[in-house]
Task: structure prediction
Amino acid sequence: MNNRSMALIGVVFALCGYAAAETPQTNAERRGQGGPAVSKTALQSYLQHMWGPDVTISVGDPRPSSIPGLLEVDVQAKQGQEQHKETLFVSQDGQKIIRGNVLDINRNPFESTAAALKTSTAPGFGPENAPVTVVVFSDYQCPYCRQEAQLVRNELPKAFPEQVRVFFKDYPLDQIHNWARLAAIGGRCVYRQNKAAFWEFHDWIFAHQSEIQPDNVKAKILEFANGRNLDSLALGRCLDTRATENEVNVSIAEGRALNVDRTPYLFINGRRVIGMPWEQMRGVIEREIEFQKKAAANCCQVTLPFASK
Result:
């Protein structure tokens, strides 16, 4: 399943041939029996042909959508370690599909994505009331993540000391990185024991990335703990029992639900930012700060009635 074939595009597909091949029962007959006109089997067959035989596809039940005349159908596709989820819009007769996002011109286009990013248990730094939130999905073994981490930790606070809050999300790429998961578990162990020490760990492990191998990850994490306000014995037990692995898995699941497919992967107030140079990213944040100022002003304006003369 390549990224191009799975990308969201605003194209309408016809399902006529697949619906006819599935069963002699017509859509009218299905409706007459109280069943939905949309055939999940026909839809799955169509997507299987489009995405290929090696992709495992599951199709959800149709449900009403926010667009009159269209139904929503959730689709999940998996190939190896790669997963993809999206919502299709299907005509009432089950014959047409639209792939794309529904945007409400009266709402922020990134609002739903921002709401899906859960940060209550994620390590963060920056002012809690900052108008801009940056969420970083990262992998400690990824060299590009190391470069991004330096930018996020150094450039962002200098440029926007009061306007940006950053949250870190674990997203180890197990299929290509053989020690990233244990490092992520270790980071969560550090955070569980001493939240203030997490960002020291974050900076330290990226700085020592080239020294770490699968057979010395634990030793390196314990090396970091020496001389810091951490219980090395408890940290070692946390690593041995993989006590925080479920927290890592929750972070991964959240990323997959948002179609995060690489690292580093950033969201700026819900806007996806991938591989963007610092000057461009700075521009996005500056525009977002201005947008939030205008939104706050529009939100709170009150028009007072004039007294008649």
